[in-house]
Design brief:
Number of helices: 11
Helix content: over 70%
Number of domains: 1
Shape: globular
Structural class: mainly alpha
Largest sheet: none
Strand content: under 5%
Radius of gyration: 18 Å
Number of strands: 0
Distance between the termini: 25 Å
Order of helices and strands: HHHHHHHHHHH
């Protein structure tokens, strides 16, 4: 393990934390930046496993609220419905993720041109949806109907293509089905907990024999930096979205995707 690898892990961890919860595709950013930094992780596990830091960032911000839901589960119908809605939304990713895991890691993760294209296309989708005159019917992320939650879960599966964005797919899907921007972003936070925890556990299981102590060290670096950056984003994102919408993220996607395509054309 070289000093360049350590520095790359540090940078990529920050990028993961800053981009995981905004609709710009953290995985797409990690894979593109890693490509140009010459960073190679064993089995592409680094990009998945450092998401644990982002998971803990959500817990650090929402622990009190989630703990109240957990304690209320035995006697509160609303708490049980919220838990059921998150698990129902998570279910499609479990099935499709397990079936497509090897294809995603060995083909889609290794196609930087595809990532650039999906970043750009997703940016235009965000711009269009952000400007639609939508009338919200659901404004509380903890009170979404079960059918809506399941539909959002299917939207999340689109993000298995790197560059699409898990949060972007869930937020756009939620908005088109009648939610407001703030609750759509918050539901995406909550759905991230089982989704990223599941991805972390499954990828660790699949690559347990291939990972070395050097891999564990760079993953730990990425984990810590992603936690710090992710906590900052979770604390500030909802207010930012309420004031500015999703257009800034859309333009960011288009710019990054365009620069990525130009760099790939110029340097390979």
């Amino acid at each position: 393990m070289t000093s360049d690898t350590i520095v790359s892990a540090f940078i990529l961890g920050i990028v993961e934390g800053l981009t995981e919860f905004i609709p710009v595709s953290s995985t797409g950013h990690l894979l593109l930046l890693g490509h140009f930094l010459g960073f190679e992780s064993t089995g592409k596990s680094f990009e998945i496993l450092i998401q644990l830091g982002a998971i803990l960032a959500i817990l650090s911000v929402y622990f009190g609220r989630l703990w109240k839901v957990f304690v209320a589960l035995p006697h509160d119908r609303a708490a049980r419905r919220f838990a059921a809605s998150i698990l129902l939304a998570f279910f499609p990713a479990v099935i499709i993720g397990m079936m497509a895991h090897d294809f995603i890691k060995t083909v889609l993760f290794e196609t930087p041109v595809l990532i650039c294209i999906t970043l750009i296309l997703g940016g235009f989708v965000l711009l269009i949806v952000d400007r639609l005159p939508l009338t919200p019917r659901y404004t509380n992320a903890m009170d979404y109907p079960l059918g809506l939650s399941l539909a959002i879960g299917f939207c999340q599966c689109l993000a298995m293509v790197p560059g699409v964005s898990r949060s972007g797919a869930t937020i756009v899907g939620a908005l088109l089905m009648g939610t407001d921007k703030r609750s759509a972003a918050e539901f995406s936070f909550f759905l991230a907990l089982p989704t990223m925890a599941g991805a972390f556990t499954y990828d660790l299981y699949k690559n347990r024999d291939a990972l070395s102590m050097d891999d564990a060290t760079i993953i730990a670096i990425g984990f810590v930096t992603s936690f710090i950056a992710g906590a900052f984003v979770v604390k500030t994102l909802l207010d930012f979205v309420s004031r500015h919408g999703f257009a800034p993220f859309a333009w960011w996607r288009i710019i990054v995707g365009g620069i990525g395509l130009a760099a790939l054309y110029a340097f390979g």
